[in-house]
Amino acid sequence: MTVLVLLRRIRQLLARLAAEEPEPGTPEPEPWLAALRLRG
After folding, report:
1. Other C-beta atoms within 10 Å of 11: how many?
2. Which of 5, 14, 17, 34 could connect to 28 by a Cys-Cys bridge, CB 3.0–4.6 Å?
3. Dist CA 27 CA 24 (whole Å)
């Protein structure tokens, strides 16, 4: 598996996670995920 394929899979996974809005009052599972969501 090449690095590009790996990066593409990670990007797809992050996009899927960002698309799922957490329920109100639910703490962010990972601080870096919150940072990614803030950066858009």
Report:
1. 10
2. 34
3. 9
Q: What predicted TM-score, i.e. pTM, was given to this entire model?
A: 0.43
How far apart are the C-alpha atoms of 38 and 40, rounded to whole Å? 5
Our CA dihedral for 29, 31, 9, 3, rounded to 10 degrees, sits at -140
Q: For residue range 5-27, list pLDDT tens digits in order.
A: 989 998 888 888 777 766 666 56
In angstroms, rounded to a whole number, what is the distance separating the alpha carbons of residues 28 and 14?
14
13: containing domain = 3-20+27-39
